[in-house]
Amino acid sequence: MANPKKVPLRKCVATGEMKSKKEMVRIVRSKEGDVSVDLTGKKSGRGAYLSKSKEAVELAKKRGILSRHLSSEIPDAVFEELLSLVEKERH
């Protein structure tokens, strides 16, 4: 009898919800300190997961959750990229 495949779950740093990895977006800080959106989920570095929702992105920006999690300053361009990604997902 085949075992059903286990779905990897991740916790959103903004909302605290546990969701499947496919429903999340990963933000990564490289060793050099560059912060970027990791669409593949495989870049090396310190990562944090956010739900693919406008509310989660705005909450993370407002409260500085990502900067705390990644111990780095998060450029506005990263939040803009996240918001545009969320908009694309909705349509």
UniProtKB/TrEMBL annotation:
Gene3D superfamilies: YlxR-like (3.30.1230.10)
Taxonomic superkingdom: Bacteria
Domain YlxR: 10-82
SUPFAM superfamilies: YlxR-like (SSF64376)
Pfam families: YlxR
InterPro entries for this protein: YlxR (IPR037465), YlxR-like_sf (IPR035931), YlxR_dom (IPR007393)
Protein name: YlxR family protein
Lineage, broadest ranks: Bacteria, Bacillati, Bacillota, Bacilli, Bacillales
